[in-house]
TrEMBL record:
<feature type="transmembrane region" description="Helical">
    <location>
        <begin position="12"/>
        <end position="30"/>
    </location>
</feature>
<keyword id="KW-1133">Transmembrane helix</keyword>
<protein>
    <recommendedName>
        <fullName>peptidyl-tRNA hydrolase</fullName>
        <ecNumber>3.1.1.29</ecNumber>
    </recommendedName>
</protein>
<feature type="compositionally biased region" description="Low complexity">
    <location>
        <begin position="52"/>
        <end position="61"/>
    </location>
</feature>
<dbReference type="InterPro" id="IPR002833">
    <property type="entry name" value="PTH2"/>
</dbReference>
<dbReference type="Pfam" id="PF01981">
    <property type="entry name" value="PTH2"/>
</dbReference>
<keyword id="KW-0812">Transmembrane</keyword>
<keyword id="KW-0378">Hydrolase</keyword>
<feature type="region of interest" description="Disordered">
    <location>
        <begin position="45"/>
        <end position="91"/>
    </location>
</feature>
<feature type="compositionally biased region" description="Acidic residues">
    <location>
        <begin position="80"/>
        <end position="89"/>
    </location>
</feature>
<keyword id="KW-0472">Membrane</keyword>
<dbReference type="InterPro" id="IPR023476">
    <property type="entry name" value="Pep_tRNA_hydro_II_dom_sf"/>
</dbReference>
<dbReference type="GO" id="GO:0005829">
    <property type="term" value="C:cytosol"/>
</dbReference>
<comment type="similarity">
    <text>Belongs to the PTH2 family.</text>
</comment>
<dbReference type="GO" id="GO:0004045">
    <property type="term" value="F:peptidyl-tRNA hydrolase activity"/>
</dbReference>
Length: 216
């Protein structure tokens, strides 16, 4: 039997094969150890918002449509009640049992997209609601409208002149009437009157102003 000392040094091929086997085994066991969390999970720092709180950053691709308008009364400070209520006294319609509704009259000549129209109508709805609350937080017509499902009807008008005439007529009947003016950051010129909100009010009273208009 040959003595170990009589053997020559390993060949280059044997060294290479041995190294490959050792490396493969080491990689396998390291991978298994990592998969079971032996080395701990990597810590990924959370992004911080501008407020300093950690969490996902807000989606910067959201539309600006819903921040592009303002109601004429709301352009003033909320503390200036006389300026904010410069549309006459609101009728309470005592004893009314009729269905109440809110009508949104949209300018048809501006070429607004559906999304733009939806945003402007939302502004008009909120402006009317806030105006009614400022006038009387417990306004009977407002409360009745809330109880009966907050009906809203979208109509169309051909131009700004006709819209302002409708507003004047509504105010003369004691109805809440708010015109929304666009800020001009997206589609149309700054200051453009886009939507007239009338109500909430009894259906028959609003129809005195808008019954001749077509649905949007």
């Amino acid at each position: 039997m040959a003595n170990v000392q009589d053997r020559g040094p390993p060949s280059t091929a044997a060294v290479a094969i041995g190294t490959a086997i050792v490396s493969g085994l080491a990689g396998y066991f390291l991978g298994q150890a990592s998969s079971i969390g032996l080395f701990g999970a990597a810590q990924v720092p959370a992004r911080r918002s501008k407020s300093g709180k950690s969490g996902p950053e807000p989606d910067s691709s959201s539309s600006d449509e819903d921040s592009d308008a303002k109601a004429v009364p709301d352009a003033q400070s909320s503390s200036d009640e006389s300026e904010a209520q410069d549309l006459g006294e609101l009728e309470t319609f005592p004893g009314n049992t009729e269905e109440c509704k809110l009508v949104l009259v949209v300018r048809n000549d501006l070429g607004m997209t559906k999304g733009k129209i939806a945003a402007q109508c939302s502004h008009a709805t909120l402006a009317c609601y806030k105006a009614m609350i400022r006038a009387d937080p417990s306004h009977p017509v407002l409360r009745q409208w809330e109880r009966m499902g907050q009906a809203k009807i979208a109509l169309k008008v051909d131009n700004e002149e006709d819209m302002l005439m409708l507003q004047a007529q509504a105010v003369s009947l004691g109805l809440c009437a708010q015109v929304i003016h666009d800020a001009g950051r997206t589609q149309i010129a700054s200051g453009s009157a886009t939507v007239l909100g009338i109500g909430p009010a009894p259906k028959s009273k609003i129809d005195e102003v808008t019954s001749h208009l077509k649905l949007l």
